[in-house]
Automatic annotation (TrEMBL), chain A:
Segments passing through the bilayer: 6-23, 35-56, 87-112, 161-181, 193-226, 238-255, 260-279, 285-303
Entry superkingdom: Bacteria
Pfam families assigned: BPD_transp_2
Protein name: Ribose transport system permease protein
Protein localization: Cell membrane
UniProt keyword annotations, A-Z: Cell membrane, Membrane, Transmembrane, Transmembrane helix
From TrEMBL, chain B:
Recorded coiled-coil stretches: none
Localization per record: Cell membrane
Main location: membrane
UniProtKB keywords: Cell membrane, Membrane, Transmembrane, Transmembrane helix
Record's keyword annotation contains Transmembrane helix: yes
Annotated GO CC locations: plasma membrane
Annotated organism of origin: Asanoa hainanensis
The protein's name: Ribose transport system permease protein
Pfam families from the UniProt entry: BPD_transp_2 (PF02653)
Keyword Membrane: yes
Membrane topology: Multi-pass membrane protein
Gene Ontology molecular function: transmembrane transporter activity
Transmembrane stretches, start-end: 9-27, 39-60, 90-110, 117-134, 154-172, 205-222, 234-251, 258-279, 285-306
TrEMBL record, chain C:
Domain of life: Bacteria
Gene3D superfamilies, alphabetized: P-loop containing nucleotide triphosphate hydrolases
Database matches in SMART domains: AAA
Taxonomic classification: Bacteria, Bacillati, Actinomycetota, Actinomycetes, Micromonosporales
Keywords per UniProt: ATP-binding, Nucleotide-binding, Repeat, Transport
Listed GO MF terms: ATP binding; ATP hydrolysis activity
Domain ABC transporter: 21-259, 269-512
InterPro entries: AAA+_ATPase (IPR003593), ABC_carbohydrate_import_ATPase (IPR050107), ABC_transporter-like_ATP-bd (IPR003439), ABC_transporter-like_CS (IPR017871), P-loop_NTPase (IPR027417)
Matches recorded under Pfam families: ABC_tran
Name of this chain's protein: Ribose transport system ATP-binding protein
Length: 309, 312, 515, 343
């Protein structure tokens, strides 16, 4: 059932690329594809976390400022020095994990609806990030992300793509081969039954939100590596985009169904559509409208809920 | 329903608490009570959010969510600001436009069977594009007479509209349609099974949300006196926040639009509280985030306590 | 009305007086499952017509097609001679006088009883607006008309017990005084007294000229109530008869002959105590003591809603106890979560398999393995080979799904098989204590029989079983001992097999006849 | 109802009250703009004459208009505004004007004519950068335009100015136009994605996010075009040759010190030292040839930092130090001189 949706999602990507290649020669060339893959990888990272919480019927709206906060932690703690890079990465991921943990505890233990908990957390992170850094992404330093990180994007086959493949492998293994993955789907499909089967529903939920924070932080690290330095508002584009990637990737927003492979396809589809429209020099208003229509078309193709009968 | 009443009253409680806090920080800061100017400006600036929140609460009551309110408000603001100065008749067109946008959402959700959050995520993009098309640069205007009738800065005409909105909801609540909205939110499959025409009701609910967005747009243009194609964006999250603070259950079926109205006013008051308490502006969003979580947490705790009491 | 025939009713009765309901040539598939194939059915006004068949025979599907909840892939449906196949909308059928109580209840959990009853026809005041203050009294009046006085019309539906919900659902259907009444397993959650109550109203409607259609897995109800019986098997009409013996019916339903309802209670409980409970307070329980011995099947009887569910949930760690001690194999234990319970060797099989047991879209294997994941866990990974073996053997043992792949989603299975999947999950845990809560609810006769035998076998293996059923008869025959709960306390203890359900009922209501 | 208008009751003999109402603080430019405002307030003459306060509104018009209403209640003498919407605050600004409060808006200005504005000519911004590109390319070549946030006045004006210039030069071919959302990261991603589909590019016109665009060219190993862009420190590092490759470019920035000029205008108007007139200030312009570390480019500051927080040269409107922009602390031992020009 959900494997079929993965195929649809991949089909959607291929269709968008084909249409692009026909209307705009060279659009689907390897060099173009490679860049789109790199750009899509950021969405892919964020969407990995978003997918995990969506699988249990949740949602993570705190992604923008978790991402941004982690990005700033990375530069301020590494000061651009290679020797401090490992520590900085751990710290940045740790921030993501900590915030995710907070979200998870709020949702699972305090029973705050996910929308509220994560929306509130986004505000909290924004306030903390701005207040603590005084708005300077790297307090009086001109340093860049440490050299090894910036190397992620060099070469004909950038390491970033391997990193994304690694994330893909991790997600797939986690969800399909581990007992944790089994529990995730069980909780997503029927939390009450999962609880009565001895699944630690709260624990699973907390773990997933924590992972979502980690993935947002990972995206922050990748974006800093990509641009050299963080900026304020770095994460803003990724909120709705991560949700869109998840659903275009065939994950059911109601929980319990979906695979990360589809989300990879979904991320690529979205980037391809945007890139194509910009290449066609469609004005901004047209781009927004067509983007919306494409998402609708995809939803009509395979995102429909079961008929009530 | 008593359960629902209890939940709703959380929204009122939060409102009461913020109102008290507002009075306290205001008077301690300025050494006097708020004047009619303050009340009027609170009223007029809240009105757009109040309307969006009512629309949003209707959708949430059916178990859905409407992210496209931002886009609908933007389109309607753009059209209002560009046309109404030529003829007031355009106000009717704006309301129809909003309703049509909402009905489009409703059609897709109810008959296309696409989850509300996804539908409205897509149409948000479409409506925002449309708004940009109508109004590439901010500007436009609204006739002074319209302004005086809708959001008069000197007399509380806004109260009339707020009152009408409240009465509108109370009437709606006392129609079979109103009962059906709750039924669908409570359990859509069951509601259909007992003869509720779920698709038709949802279509109407989303259309009403569009109408509310259009009304919000009209009031927005009336308070600000001109328009902007991005005007609607902030309403997406603030309307959701209002609904939640107002005690409407996200799963649907529980709560009331009046709670959402209370939530909207409370959120506006929080801005004022933060203003007068002299919080470092860099930390402002931190407190807004905390407020949201704490308000909802209180609601959850109270509901839990109520349940305990009843079971004991 | 004396002719008996196994011809399809549609042909049989064409040309006779107007039929209330007529379906012919109906096909309906769910994904890969053909729930109805070329199914026919007809019922007349002024009769009570029972629809019988095994789990998954397609009864509920037919009913959903009749009342316009789902569309037939093929075929026609007529209501009082009017073709309605094209309009798939319960509201439209309601206007034609068709009212239905569904197998999975359709009360709206967040609405009050009053709102549920009056949703589509609320009392109106001036301007045609709903009189919200009138809802309560109006609902009280309706409930009163049906002699229901123990349900507060202002209570939220979600707070009612299953039986109360069933009653409200039935009142909602009956109160419309419909010309066609369809009741899908209306008695599954009802106590005997309530079944009598329902039967009275069904007859009354019949006598007033309505067509009453119902399904049940309890033959004695069909026998007592039905004017005619239609039997379905594998989604097809098999026979419609005026009279039918149970043996005949079983043969028609299952295609095999089948005798004897309850297996004999051959085992004897061992001496050692497996589970001892002292002074348990939780939910509606106010101080329950019990001692469950190994190899014993201990029945928990009593009227519905006397705290049975609280007892089971608390023992399983799904509900907090206010007070009391639990001793396992002589050692005091604290069971704070379902995880604790499972680790201690306790299993709970719930009544409501869809809501509390199954992960419908997941595979049979995932469903069965769900409670024992950590047993086949190496460094976080599932040992898939071991899982396949373990699940495979239990599936064979319980003959689930006729030997087809365990990769199939559980929602493609019939109700009986789904119930077995839940049982299988718990048998895999090797639990020494089984809490079986109304596990035969809505299960067909053949599967029920399988379950009885299984329960006996499990006891013979030395497992301790706490058994609750909404069918007192079952408890009377299956259990070594029966505790009767009343108002959260053990009111009586009967030695089993009790044999006569009346004794349990009597003990349930002694001293307090309107309880 | 209180009979006295709030403004009248709030007025005191001593310091005058001037508040900054900023629509949001989510980007570097706004942070610097607020910092220099705070720094100025802590320096003479403002530290003695003015009681300053700063408010942020989360980019939400209704929040900002609540704050302005509250400022009216508080009885401030002047309000300095960077608006969430050029049109959205007209109503409340009118109310402030009606109560005799001086309103000065800058950057994202308020339409309402009753308020004063301190601004730069955004059409000219677009023209000047485009003209630079045209000149450097001798009127011949492929150009891409990276625009800002659609639907805003500044974006529209900048694009219009540039388009006019490019259209007037038939040898220039605008081969691609897309939005960078005035954000380096977004601009970098969009440019990266477009480049494989584009022919050789000779000139790039950027409304904002310039360093991101350049980084995308670097990553794609494309020949570096002539760049006309904003005043991001990262861009200027490329222009100064501090980052490779050295970029031939012109950098014009919307200066963060607009807030300080607005503060001065507000102060002067309240004190009656300046007529109630709006002012337009010239853009600080920098080109690759006149890069001075510590003045127009800052090696020790982030790329996203706006390097035009201070004006320079003999006709400078205002001169500020680095701490003012980074920490909002006053420049050591200095009276701040703001040159509003001759009215
Ligand atoms: N929504 C559904 N999706 C998939 N399969 C279904 C669905 N509803 C019913 N089925 C399948 O259709 C077949 C007929 O089911 P139906 O519910 O009609 O049986 P039934 O005779 O009512 O059985 P029971 O006595 O258990 O209620 C079964 O195999 C069942 O699993
Ligand atoms: N479903 C009901 N059943 C019985 N009594 C009810 C019901 N609903 C309301 N009442 C009674 O009617 C009176 C009026 O209720 P009211 O109109 O305030 O309903 P409400 O649920 O508060 O509506 P809203 O959701 O619009 O706030 C209350 O005193 C309440 O006790
Ligand atoms: Mg009320
Ligand atoms: Mg059935």
């Amino acid at each position: 059932m959900s494997t079929r949706r993965v195929l649809y999602a991949l089909g959607g990507t291929v269709a968008v690329l084909l249409v692009g290649a026909i209307l705009h020669p060279g659009f689907a060339s390897w060099s173009s594809l490679r860049v789109m893959l790199v750009v899509a990888s950021f969405t892919g990272f964020v969407a990995a976390g978003q997918m995990l919480v969506v699988l249990v019927g949740g949602i993570d709206l705190s992604i923008p400022w978790v991402l941004n906060g982690a990005a700033i932690v990375l530069t301020t703690s590494s000061l651009g020095q290679t020797s401090r890079a490992p520590l900085a990465i751990v710290l940045a991921l740790g921030v993501g994990a900590l915030v995710g943990l907070g979200n998870g505890l709020g949702v699972a233990w305090l029973g705050v609806p996910a929308v509220v908990m994560t929306l509130g957390m986004n505000g909290v992170m924004q306030g903390l990030t701005l207040g603590l850094s005084k708005g300077l992404t790297c307090a009086s330093c001109g340093s860049y992300a440490p050299e090894p990180l910036r190397g992620l994007f060099d070469g004909a086959l950038p390491a970033q793509l391997f990193l994304w493949a690694g994330v893909g492998l991790f997600m797939t293994v986690l969800l399909t081969l581990t007992t944790f993955g089994r529990r995730v789907y069980a909780v997503g499909v029927n939390p009450r039954a999962a609880f009565l089967s001895g699944v630690g529903v709260r624990g699973v939920t907390v773990a997933l939100y924590t992972l979502s924070g980690v993935f947002a932080a990972l995206a922050g690290i990748a974006l800093v590596a990509y641009g050299g330095q963080p900026s304020l508002g770095l994460g803003d584009p990724y909120l709705f985009e991560s949700i869109a990637a998840v659903v275009v990737g065939g994950v059911s927003i109601l929980g319990g169904r979906g695979h990360y492979l589809g989300v990879i396809a979904g991320s690529l589809t979205l980037v391809a559509v945007t890139t194509f429209l910009q290449a066609q020099r469609v004005p901004e208003y047209g781009r927004l409208m067509i983007y919306g229509l494409v998402i609708l078309a995809i939803l009509f193709a395979y995102g429909r809920e079961k008929a009530h009968d | 329903m008593r359960e629902a009443l209890r939940r709703v009253s959380i929204g009122y409680l939060v409102l009461a608490a913020t109102a008290v806090a507002y009075l306290v920080v205001y008077t301690s800061r300025l050494g006097r009570f708020p004047t009619s100017f303050d009340y009027l400006s609170i009223l007029n600036t809240t009105l757009p959010l109040v309307f969006v929140a009512i629309g949003q609460s209707l959708v949430v009551l059916t178990g859905g969510i409407d992210l496209s309110v931002g886009g609908m408000v933007s389109v309607c603001v753009a059209v209002t600001a560009t046309t109404v100065s030529s003829s007031v008749f355009w106000l009717v067109v704006v309301l129809a436009l909003g309703t049509a946008c909402g009905a489009l959402n409703g059609l897709i959700v109810a008959y296309g069977r696409i989850a509300p959050i996804l539908t409205t995520l897509a149409t948000l993009s479409i409506f925002t594009g449309l708004a940009l098309r109508v109004m590439p640069v901010p500007g436009g205007s609204i006739p002074q007479e319209v302004r005086l009738v809708l959001t008069n800065p000197a007399t509380p005409t806004g109260l009339i509209w707020l009152g009408l909105a409240v009465v509108g909801w109370l009437v709606l609540r006392r129609t079979r349609f109103g009962m059906r909205v709750y039924a669908i939110g409570s359990d859509e499959a069951s509601a259909r099974a007992v003869g509720v025409p779920a698709a038709a009701v949802k279509l109407k609910v989303y259309a009403l949300s569009g109408l509310c967005s259009a009304l919000a747009a009209v009031f927005y243009v009336s308070t600000t006196t001109s328009g902007d194609a991005n005007a609607g964006n902030p309403f997406i999250l603030t309307s959701i926040a209002s609904v939640v603070v107002g005690g409407v259950a996200f799963a649907g079926g529980r709560g009331s639009a009046l709670g959402a109205v209370a939530g909207a006013v409370a959120l506006t008051l929080v801005i004022d509280i933060l203003f007068f308490s002299g919080i470092d502006p860099l930390y402002q969003s931190l407190f807004q985030g905390l407020f949201l979580v704490v308000a909802v947490l209180l609601g959850t705790v109270a509901a839990l306590a109520a349940r305990r009491r009843r079971q004991a | 009305m004396t002719e008996t025939s196994s011809m399809a009713p549609a042909q049989q009765e064409s040309g006779s007086q107007t039929l209330a309901v007529r379906a012919s040539g109906v096909d309906r598939a769910f994904g890969g499952v053909q729930a109805l194939r070329d199914a026919s059915f007809a019922a007349r006004p002024g009769e009570i017509h029972a629809l019988a068949g095994e789990n998954g025979a397609g009864k509920s599907t037919l009913i959903k097609v009749l009342c316009g909840l789902i569309k037939a892939d093929r075929g026609t449906v007529e209501i009082f001679g009017t073709e309605v196949s094209r309009v798939v909308e319960p509201a439209a059928r309601r206007r034609m006088g068709v009212a239905t109580a569904f197998q999975e209840l359709s009360l709206l959990p967040d609405l009050t009883v009053a709102e549920n009853l009056l949703l589509e026809n609320p009392p109106r005041g001036r301007l045609g607006l709903v009189k919200r203050r009138g809802l309560g009294p109006a609902a009280e009046e309706i409930l009163g008309r049906y002699g229901v006085d123990d349900i507060d019309p202002r209570a939220t539906a979600a707070d009612l017990s299953v039986a109360q919900r069933q009653v409200v659902e039935l009142v909602r259907v009956l109160a419309g005084e419909p010309r066609v009444v369809i009741l899908d397993e209306p008695t599954a959650a009802l106590a005997d007294r309530q079944v009598e109550w329902l039967a009275g109203h069904m007859r009354q409607l019949r006598d007033a000229g309505s067509c009453v259609i119902f399904t049940s897995h309890r033959w004695r109800e069909i026998e007592a109530l039905a004017d005619r019986v239609t039997v379905f098997r594998n989604g097809t009409h098999v026979a419609t008869r005026d009279t039918l013996s149970e043996a005949e019916a079983v043969t028609l339903m299952s295609g095999r002959s089948f005798a004897g309802a309850y297996p004999e209670l051959t085992t004897v409980p061992q001496r050692e105590s497996a589970l001892r409970v002292k002074g348990l307070h939780s939910g509606r329980l106010h101080g329950v003591d019990l001692d469950l011995r190994r190899g014993e099947i201990l029945g928990v009887g009593g009227l519905a809603g006397q705290g049975q569910r609280d007892l089971f949930l608390t023992l399983f760690g799904a509900q907090k106890a206010r007070q009391g001690t639990i001793t396992l194999d002589g050692k005091a234990v604290a069971i704070r979560s379902t995880k604790d319970a499972i680790r201690a060797g306790i299993a709970y099989v719930p009544e409501d398999r869809k809501a509390e047991g199954l992960f419908l879209p997941l595979s049979i294997r995932d469903n069965i393995a769900a409670a024992t994941l950590s047993r086949r866990n190496t460094a976080g990974f599932v040992r898939r080979g071991a899982e396949r073996t373990a699940v495979g053997s239990i599936v064979d043992q319980l003959s689930i799904g006729k030997g087809r792949s365990t990769n199939r989603a559980v929602d493609t299975l019939s109700g009986g098989n789904q119930q077995k999947v839940v049982m299988a999950r718990w048998l895999l845990t090797d639990a020494r204590i089984l809490l079986l809560f109304d596990v035969t609810r809505g299960v067909d006769a053949a599967t029920k029989h399988d379950i009885y035998e299984l329960v006996g076998k499990l006891a013979a293996q030395g497992r301790a079983i706490l058994y609750y059923s909404s069918e007192t008869e079952e408890i009377a025959h299956l259990c070594h001992r029966v505790l009767v709960l009343r108002e959260g306390r053990v009111a009586a203890e009967l030695a089993g097999p009790v044999g006569d359900a009346e004794r349990i009922v009597a003990a349930s209501i002694k001293e307090n006849h309107d309880a | 109802g209180d009979a006295a208008t709030p403004a009248a009751s709030g007025k005191k003999a001593g310091k005058i009250k001037i508040a900054l109402s900023n629509s949001f603080i989510g980007n570097q430019w706004r942070v610097e703009m607020e910092n220099v405002y705070k720094a100025a307030c802590a320096m003479p003459p403002y530290v003695d004459q003015v009681e300053c306060s700063v408010f942020n509104a989360g980019n939400d018009v209704s929040t900002q208009s609540r704050q302005i209403s509250n400022l009216i209640s508080q009885g401030v003498d002047a309000i300095v505004i960077n608006a969430a919407s050029t049109s959205g605050l007209n109503g409340v600004v009118q109310q402030a004007c009606d109560r005799g409060i001086v309103v000065v808006s800058f950057d994202n200005i308020v339409d309402n004519k009753c308020g004063l504005t301190v601004n730069t000519d955004q059409i000219k911004f677009g023209q000047q950068l485009a003209q630079f590109i045209v000149d450097e390319l001798n009127g011949q070549g492929n150009v891409i335009m990276v625009t800002g946030v659609a639907g805003t006045g500044a974006d529209n004006d900048r694009n219009k100015g540039a388009k006019d210039v490019f259209a007037a030069n038939p040898g220039i071919k605008v081969v691609s136009t897309y939005t960078g959302m005035w954000d380096s990261a977004t601009a970098q991603r969009a440019t990266s994605a477009q480049l494989p589909n584009l022919p050789e590019i000779h000139g790039v016109w950027v409304s904002g996010g310039t360093d991101g665009v350049i980084k995308a060219f670097v990553a794609a190993k494309r020949p570096m075009p002539v760049v006309g862009g904003e005043a991001e420190n990262g861009f200027r590092k490329f222009m100064a040759g501090l980052l490779t490759p050295k970029v031939n470019g012109m950098s014009i920035g919307q200066p963060p010190f607009l807030s300080v000029i607005s503060l001065e205008l507000a102060r002067a108007v309240v004190k009656g030292e300046h007529p109630k007139e709006s002012i337009t200030i010239p853009f600080p312009v920098a080109t690759s040839d006149n890069m001075v570390p510590g003045e127009t480019v800052f090696p020790d500051l982030p790329d996203s930092f706006f390097a035009d927080f201070t004006d320079s040269g003999p006709n400078a409107t205002v001169i500020l130090c680095q701490e003012a922009a980074t920490d909002g602390t006053p420049c050591p031992g200095k009276t701040l001189d703001v040159n509003l020009g001759t009215p």
